[in-house]
């Protein structure tokens, strides 16, 4: 069984930074690709970022490019999302998701991920 636990969310002013973490427990963490998604009240869940199991491939949703950085430490079974220059529109619950196989081109499709965390709230005040 694979379990994901996010942490690091909170309240920050616009222009500030936060780092959210996703600890993955279970077998073969290093073989799982991980995606970050977010969902704001009344909105659809949207893709934020993706990292392949080796970390060689990373992708970002256009609105976060240049501000967010995804990374992973397989020795710690952890994926990080460093968020800088935060904007009020970044306010959402952030979820990490994992799967052993995420087809190329489908990294932003949340239905491709089997395992999900409970989410962590990020609130950016203006």
The general outline is globular
The rounded distance between the terminal residues' Cα atoms is 40 Å
Oligomeric assembly: single chain
Helicity, as a percent range: under 10%
Instruction: Let me know the average pLDDT.
Output: 95
Main β-sheet description: 7 strands, mixed
Gyration radius, to the nearest Å? 13 Å
Contiguous helical run count: 0
Strand content: over 45%
| Poorly predicted runs of 5 or more residues | none
Q: How many runs of DSSP E, i.e. beta strands?
A: 11
- Helix and strand element order: EEEEEEEEEEE
Alpha-beta content class: mainly beta
Keywords, separated by commas or semicolons:
seven-stranded mixed β-sheet; 126 residues; four-stranded antiparallel β-sheet; globular; single chain; mainly beta; 11 strands
């Amino acid at each position: 069984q694979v379990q994901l636990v996010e942490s690091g969310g909170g309240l920050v002013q616009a222009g500030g930074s936060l780092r959210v973490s996703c600890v993955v427990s279970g077998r073969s963490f290093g073989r799982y690709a991980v995606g970050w998604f977010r969902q704001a009240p009344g909105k659809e869940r949207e893709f934020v970022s993706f990292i392949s199991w080796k970390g060689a491939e990373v992708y970002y949703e256009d609105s976060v490019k240049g501000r967010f950085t995804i990374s992973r430490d397989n020795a710690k079974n952890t994926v990080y999302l460093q968020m800088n220059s935060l904007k009020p529109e970044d306010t959402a619950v952030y979820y990490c998701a994992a799967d052993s196989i995420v087809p190329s081109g489908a990294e932003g499709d949340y239905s491709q991920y089997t395992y999900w965390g409970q989410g962590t709230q990020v609130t950016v005040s203006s």
